[in-house]
Task: structure prediction
Amino acid sequence: MFPGTVQRRRCRVYTIGQAARRTGVSADKLRAWERRYGFPTPARTQARYRLYDEAALAQIRRMTRLLAEGLQAREAALIVGARDDAGPRLTPAAFIKALEGPHSIRQLEKSFACCLQDRPFVDFVDNWMVPMLELLGRAWLRGDVSIGGEHGVSAAIMRQLGVVWDALPQGDGPMVLIGLPAGARHEICLLAFAILLKEQGIRVRYLGADLPAESWAEAVIETRARVVVTGVHRPEDVPSVEELIVSVAAAGAQLIALGGRYQGDVSGSALRLGHEFGPAVDRFGRHAAELHESVAEPAAG
Result:
């Protein structure tokens, strides 16, 4: 469902039932893992109720990914519980420096995965992934990173984000469509935003890159989605986004949200999400909840 008021994720905690719904791991299994393997280790209220923060949910999701890869539960718990030994953790600058020299994409992908798993996802995106991508773009412009290197690491990042996406349960409530307009192919930040919405329990359909306006309209009609999210990452994407806005609005979309560096260059009625992911999720949640309530009120009367 759309959260009416999304609290800051760094402070938010969840009961065991809420943690189960957000991770797809049953409350019984969470208790069993804690009893057998000492993982996870939730905080406790004075009444001894378990409370899980975002870092704990990230660990639980990592545990499920390791189990899906074929590890035994005891082995996976040891890996998740011993995060300091899980692999190399590079700063964004060090990550790009490694890419500039002799490198293995496989090793860099492992490093990316370790950084991803080391903190709540919203913190990872705003404070590690986005700065790293900005440095990567500059290095490519200078010629310090080849086209092949840039494409290789981008594909590795998409693979890791795909693992996170697949590990999250699908939400309920109104559908949100997320994708890129015709001609746009820079998916990393958009998929990250889709993951953040999915973490909030929102039902998301990710449409991918380079989708013509008529295909967007078909998706809106097929799913009856009232909410659409897209990105404007290059100046040349602006006309395609403006065409998309007209097309999905005619098909029935009522809230069109824009991210990306050039979101402010787009004309037409749309919600500009800003450039930081945490506040963008909050802003999106408020507007989507208001839309959902305004649509539901007449039916209730």
Summary: The chain has three domains: 14-81, 92-164, 170-296. The first strand starts at residue 13 and ends at 14. The radius of gyration is 20 Å.
